[in-house]
Amino acid sequence: MTAADVPALLRETVGEGALITDPAGMGSYLTDWRNAWSGAAAAVVRPGSTEEVAAVVRACRTAGVAVVPQGGNTGLCGGSMPDSSGRQVVLSLDRMRRIRGVDPVDLTITAEAGVVLRSVQQAAAAEGCLFPLSLGSEASCTIGGNLATNAGGTGVLRYGNMRDLTLGLEVVLPDGRIWNGLRALRKDNTGYDLKQLFVGAEGTLGVITAAVLKLFPAVRSRATAWVALPSPQAAVDLIGVVRALCGDRLTGFEVMSRQSVDFVLRHQAGARDLFADVHPWYALVELSDTLPDAGLDGLLEAGLAEAFEREVAADAVVASGSAQVAALWALREGISEAQNFEGPSLKHDVTVPVSSIPAFVERTDRALQAALPGIRIVTYGHIGDGNLHYNLSKPAGSDDAAFRAMAGELARVVYDSTSSFDGSISAEHGLGQSKRDVIADYKDGLELELMRGIKRLLDPPGLMNPGKVLPSA
After folding, report:
1. How would you classify the pairing of strands 67-70 and 89-92?
2. pLDDT digits (tens, 9 = 90+) for 340-386
3. Which has more confidence, 301 or 33?
4. Which residues does the UniProt record annotate as the domain FAD-binding PCMH-type (predicted)?
């Protein structure tokens, strides 16, 4: 079968209305949102049900055509992009946007893979509940993509990542069979936890079509502070101070370098510096509680007072209302977009033990400056769980192409340093295409062997999102 035969096959499977074959119509499915990754496809198919997904996968399996599952196309590693051959089929879940049920007693929500994350948050809130996953792309990323990449975000410190928030899955396997694992059980000790095979697999083992997710009681009070810090060590110390005093009420702890904040102040309308003095690092600290009047402002202020006494914090402001809370979070969440105005952005999503963060930052910064003097290092992230977005911008005034040409060398500096601290080169963005081959140098060979064995078991022809996650053998 040639690529030209594929549209006719899919048309028979799901009908004309669910198929896109013209180049203009396929365009947004074949280039990622950053224009960093692009590909070609024989067709884009948009099934509207799990049964239709299964029919598409079966038809492609029979024809020997590879399937590339795609959610909101907001990924950062090229995991949902087809290759350049024009023979692969992009299977978009963007029509599967039904919330099948919300259960405030069991504290669960069942959503299809194409449901946008914000819609899940809103459906939970309508029932007096909280779905705690929160990302900068939550208005466009989908639950299927969140599951495929094991998304993290700002609430991992308290609630865990997507793997921790998942109770059950519905998955179309590479041979077209449907595994109905949509169980809402908190305890099920009947053998292997199969759902965990598919969370974080980036569509290489099957197509997630729906999930049962955990909900929590709604948050009714918050306290948020912006804290100036002298160093990454001070950030780690501050976590200890606040956690010891506040326990699980500590639900957010973000750290940002001054370089990160400078970019936001320069490029984000309305952003302003909160302190008269410039500080090398900042933290955004948030407490939350289910009680409407939990006294969190006083609790946070007590923690900050102790931090001042220990010379951990240099300055701080506690937000006085929802508008100021939003302004503080805008400083944090605007970093990635603001960096784009400064030219090419080399993004790295790494994790090391929290206690190792100060030494990691010091060593990696020094190595990068040696590799490229004047490089601007944009470090920020979820320091409470050891996850740093360690992004790089070119030296001011330098050439874009020359900087891009150094991407591999600079990535090796970051990854080698990460590995030396027993860290991971991907904390929450996945491997996709961008880290597929390099992971072989940083992951134990036996782990890769086991991963390949699982892939061969479930997808012997290798037609499910090929060229992602697993390095070439």
Report:
1. parallel
2. 999 999 999 999 999 999 999 999 999 999 999 999 999 999 988 99
3. 301
4. 37-218
- List, as one string, the DSSP characters of 386-439: TEEEEEEEPPTT--HHHHHHTHHHHHHHHHHHHHHTT-BSBSSS--TTTTTTGG
CA–CA separation, 124 and 165 (whole Å):
14
Pairing assessment for the beta strands 281-289 and 250-257 based on DSSP bridges: antiparallel
- Structure tokens that stand for 462 in this block: 């290798």
Q: pLDDT confidence of 1, banded at 50, 70, 90?
A: low
Please name which of 32, 138, 42, 40 lies closest in space to residue 78, comparing C-alpha atoms: 32
221-336 placed in CATH 3.30.70.2190: yes
Of 80, 68, 66, nearest to 33 (Cα)? 80
Of 224, 254, 284, give the one whose Cα is nearest residue 379: 254
Phi, psi of 221 (to 5 degrees): -150, 145
Same fold, 221-336 and 342-420: yes
State the fold for domain 99-217. Answer: 3.30.465
- Any idea where the domains of the chain sit in the sequence? 3-92, 99-217, 221-336, 342-420
Burial class for 306, CB neighbours closer than 10 Å (0-12, 13-18, 19+): middle
Q: What CATH number labels 3-92?
A: 3.30.43.10
- Please give the span between the terminal C-alpha atoms of the chain, in angstroms, as a whole number: 26
Distant-in-sequence, close-in-space partners of 8: CB < 8 Å, separation ≥ 6: none
379-414 in b/e form (b: 16+ CB < 10 A) is bbbbbbbbbbbbbbbbeeeeeeeebeebeeebbebb
- The two three-digit tokens of residue 61, written as one number: 């399996």
Note the CATH number of domain 342-420. Answer: 3.30.70.2740
- C-alpha distances out from residue 73 to 10, 18, 84, 141, Å: 22, 18, 17, 7
Cα-based angle 163, 168, 174 (whole degrees, multiple of 5): 90
- Residue 183 corresponds to which amino acid? R
Predicted local distance difference test score (pLDDT) of residue 70: 97
Please state the pTM of the whole predicted model.
Answer: 0.93
The full DSSP string for 150-216 is T---TTHHHH--TTTTEEEEEEE-TTS-EEEE----S---SS--THHHHTTSTTSS-EEEEEEEE-E
